[in-house]
Q: What sequence folds into this?
């Protein structure tokens, strides 16, 4: 159960980090500063759906699996979700090279560290059975 708790805390930390990432993008609005806004008037639905899946659905499914997985295939799915999230966080962190924003410098690398640690712990947990 100790490993499950550690993995669950990592999933929650990833969710918190992704929430902080989105929140930091919106904070300039308090000073009436410009943020990246499209003038098309239509929200890009595929991107919104992808972000909902990556930033909430995958972590919550991973969290539930870390708490309630009893079968081998549950843990395999759990490891796959953790590695998928780690790949996404690493790829998203590359944006700091092309589109550098100082506040995100404190979020992106930490999300990579958290997600890679999560993937490693999930892999170790899966190998125990």
A:
């Amino acid at each position: 159960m100790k490993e499950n708790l550690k993995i669950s805390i990592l999933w929650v930390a990833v969710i918190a980090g992704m929430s902080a990432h989105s929140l930091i993008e919106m904070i300039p609005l308090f000073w009436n500063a410009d943020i990246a806004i499209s003038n098309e008037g239509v929200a890009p639905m595929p991107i919104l759906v992808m972000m909902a899946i990556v930033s909430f659905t995958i972590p919550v499914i991973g969290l539930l699996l870390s708490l309630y997985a009893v079968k081998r295939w549950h843990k395999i799915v759990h490891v796959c979700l953790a590695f998928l999230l780690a790949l996404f966080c690493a790829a998203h962190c590359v944006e700091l090279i092309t589109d550098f924003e100082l506040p995100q410098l404190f979020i992106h690398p930490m999300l990579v560290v958290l997600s890679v640690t999560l993937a490693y712990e999930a892999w170790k947990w899966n190998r125990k059975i």
Notes: The chain has a mean pLDDT of 90. Helices lie at 2-26, 45-68, 72-93, 95-98, 108-127. The radius of gyration is 16 Å.
